Amino acid sequence: MTGTTLATRRAPALGSPARRRTRRRGRRILYWVATHAIAIALAIMFLAPLVFMFLTAVMSSNETLTGELWPRSWHWSNFGTALTTDHGVMLHWLLNTLLYAVLATAFMLVSSIPVAYALARFRFRGRKLAFVLVITTMMLPPQVTIVPMYIVWARFHLTGTLWPLILPMLFGDAFSIFLLRQFLVTIPAEYADAARVDGCGEFAAMLRVVLPMARPAIAAVALFQFFYAWNDYFGPLIYTKPDSWTLAVGLSTFRAAHHVEWNLTMAATLLTVLPVMVVFFLAQRVFIQGVTLTGVKG
């Protein structure tokens, strides 16, 4: 009887401040869930495959052949096995992918930034036509030009390597030129004019004044190109030989060789997507800023 009386005294009354705070907190949680219901559903849709890959990657080979979703024991060594199996060929694919992604991104920036600056700042005859031609090339799928381009690179004896995918970036990228140009036209021309008054040439004004202000857009196009090169499957499949395979192509052969060992396949897949996820989360602020601040000014 005494215990019941003490429990009754300790429990908050129906209209007590503690009970009211609990109800307000519950309403806020329900309101937040209702407001972000679509975002929560989309987050679950995108995260569910990654969670499934991770759980499968740390299972044993026998567990992956069952219907269990949660591993009985965690086999972290699967990631090391995926990297070192087949004489460490996955590490070789990783180096090829880094070579492709880094050089293609660097060459794209070197070639696309001056073109975008010229289309945004210079006034010359045919400027609008040149801009329309740049936009038109964005509508042309690579499958249309793959046969003549392959013949051209074969005559230069570059097929079987990654150079047919890297060297074209020295001639600019249509999407990057478009995005950079749209950002550069939003920067007031007075900044470059003041630099010219101080004795800077056009190239120095672009390099020292305009480009530092366009860092969000430059970071955005660099990330776009890096992600495209990292995930590119069609180009390396057409042009490269096994010694020059990237992770995207090599992963398909890895899956064929280890089609029963789903834990190793999922571990290799997770190791493939993890670097781009880390790069995106580290640079997401400047990436989103570069995309959202890109103007549509003509």
Q: Report strand %.
A: under 5%
Estimated radius of gyration: 27 Å
Share of residues in helices: over 70%
User: First CA to last CA: what distance?
Assistant: 82 Å
CATH architecture of the largest domain: Orthogonal Bundle
Structural class, from helix and strand content?
mainly alpha
CATH homologous superfamily placement of the largest domain: MetI-like
InterPro entries: MetI-like (IPR000515), MetI-like_sf (IPR035906)
Keywords: Cell membrane, Membrane, Transmembrane, Transmembrane helix, Transport
Transmembrane segments: 29-55, 98-119, 131-153, 165-184, 205-230, 262-283
Family: Belongs to the binding-protein-dependent transport system permease family.
List the helices and strands and how they pair.
Elements: H1 2-10, H2 17-35, H3 37-57, H4 61-64, H5 77-121, H6 127-138, H7 142-155, H8 163-166, H9 174-184, H10 189-197, H11 202-213, H12 215-231, H13 234-239, H14 247-257, H15 262-292
Helix pairs in contact: 3-15, 5-9, 5-12, 5-14, 5-15, 6-9, 9-12, 10-11, 12-15, 14-15
In short:
By secondary structure, this protein is mainly α. It is 76% helix and 0% strand. InterPro entries: MetI-like, MetI-like_sf.
